[in-house]
Structures are given as structure tokens and as C-alpha cells.
Amino acid sequence: MRTEPATGRAVTATLRLGGQRLAPTVPARIYLCGITPYDVTHLGHAATFVWADTVARVLRMAGTDTVVARNVTDVDDVLTRTAAQRGRAYDEFGLSQEYWFDQDMAALHVRPPEHAPHARHHVRHVIRLAGALLATGAAYERDGRVHFRGAAVPARAGLDRADALRLAAEFGDDPADERRDDPFDVVVWQASGPGEPAWPSPWGPGRPGWHAECAAMALATLGGVVDVLAGGSDLAFPHHAYQSAMVEAATGATPFARAAFRVGTVGLGGTKMAKSTGNLVLVADLLREVPGPVLRLMLLQRHWASDWDYRPDLLDDAARTLDRLYTAAGGPSGSSVAATAVQAALLDDLDVTTALAIAESEGAAAARQVIRTLALQ
Ligand code: ZN
Description:
By secondary structure, the protein is of the alpha/beta class. Helices cover 44% and strands 17% of the residues. The chain has two domains: 24-309, Rossmann fold (3-Layer(aba) Sandwich); 312-373, no CATH class. Bound molecules: zinc ion. Zinc ion binds next to helix 8.
């Protein structure tokens, strides 16, 4: 890290992410929306977490201390239902799923995050957030529920009302519920029924809403402003839009996220991979066929925002690329200029394709830089 002589303030390398140029604060703070631990990890999850890990690794490569918070959404109606169907307590069931997720992430060389907040440990922070939103008039209480006023949120996400309504319904925000002033108001706090997890609150026993959980966990672990808000591209609306709007309404600091990093979706046979459609390729299954670095490289061999379809031959292609990279790394040392060019490519929108091409043509120093930074060893 360089230091600005006049002020002594740390100066960090600029990272381009799509149309955004990010000169991060020190340390750089990344909030990454993590898993709801009710099922095994599929390739779509893996792509998101490997790419977000790559953002952190590229920032560290450039000398920027980086702190990652990756949450676990372990208070969630889907998790509660799935655990109940299997006759298990939601928290114990969630932990068992997390164990398998952590195994997959370790095999993919995803560095454990500095913070791994769990929603059930941050309920008091959601209650504090709800109190702050009520105090500023950004939320209102009704029948044991606290609703965030969200009428302006679709516009901030660049959506018209019809598209926003469809997405809100798809992601469980229940816009047809008439207990709210506006269809785009969402729950910060909701009353719990029988069998649902519940905590005491000033509004009666209940549990947090999904967007409020992430808003509260981000505030508790990283504070009111983050450098990067990361997750899968399907989180842009409603989740990231509401999470950001809630934090901003509570703190008055805008924007909550200085840059967004939303990773493209993975499909199979032309359809997005999802539990609901059942067209899943599981990370654990692929890891029985290929080493972790081959799978990791396959996930990185395209632009991070691109949607793509998985095919088995992509793994063969990644395995061949990795072989060539290892061969190049073992060759004559090559020039340090090439290693610097690799760094520049990665700082320019995480251009893995160009970094790999430089490594293959320029030899050992560049190849080692790629292997080290992309964690392909
Ligand atoms: Zn989230």
C-alpha cells in the first residue's frame, strides 16, 4: 500500500468492476450475501462465492487490507419448513448444512470470511434497526409487525412497478398483503406463528424479515458503508435494493454500498440452476471427478457478470488450461513486467482471460502471479 505524502492517508489501487471504479477505503469492506443453509451447494452458489473471493484476493494482491462479511440466513421460512419436514430443529439443521457448505468452499480455495454473521445471533440488531427506522418515519408498526416504507425502492433499482411487483412476489415479499400501506412495503419485523422461531421484541414475539436481517448484519459487522455489496445477480431486487435502502434510512449515510458486484447466473440446459426447478449440478459431485482448482478455474473462465450454461466439457477445458499454467509456472523465470501486466488485467474488471493469456505467453513470473492471486495452486 502506498501512502499519500501530504496527508499520510493510505492510497489504494483502483479496481474497475464493470462501469464502477472503486478506490476502496482501508480496510476495504465487502458484504457478501451468503447461504440459506437448507440444501447442498450447487454450481450457481459456487460461482458467486468464488468470484466474490476473487474480488477480495485481487484487492489484497494490490496491497489493500480487505475484510469480508458473508452472512448465513439461518432465520428463514424455507429453512424452517425444510427442517420441520425432516423432524429437526431449524438451527441444528442449518448448522449441519453449513458444515457441507464449508467443505465445498474449502475445496474451492474460498478463504473463510473475517465475519460470518448468523441471522439468529443478530436479532437484537434487527430490533435496534427497526427502532431506528420507526424513529425516522421510514417504517411503521401494525399488528405486531414493523413495515419498511418501500414505495421508492423499485425506482432506485431501475425497475418499473410491474417488473418490481413480479420480482417482489417471486422472492417472498408478498406484495398482495393488504396489511401494509403500499405493496412495496416490506417486513422488518413480523409476528411468528406456531412452530416458527420467535424472539421477544417491543412489538411482540416474532422474527426478522430477510432484507432487514442482512441490513442489520452488515451494520453490526462492517458499519453503515461498505465498499462492495456482493451476491448473485438475482439479489439486485428486491434484496440488495431493500437492504441498502434500510441501512441508508437508518444511518443517513448514502450510498450504503459504494459498488455492487452481482455475479451472473449458472444454467443447465438453458434454464437457470435452482432448487425449485431441480436442474442442479452439485459442487460435491463435481469434486469427486476433478480437483478443486480445476472447478475453481472453470467458474472463472468468463466475465463475472455473464450468465452461462454448465457443460461437462468446460471442466476438461479448465483442466487443460490449468496444466498449461502449471507448466508455464515451472519454466524460466520470465519478466516481472509480465507479472505486473497480470495484476493490471485483474484490477481491470477481474479480466481472468487476459491474465491467463499473459501467463501462458510470458512464462513463469506471470504464471505464478496468476496461480497465487486466483488461488489455483
Ligand atoms: Zn443478504
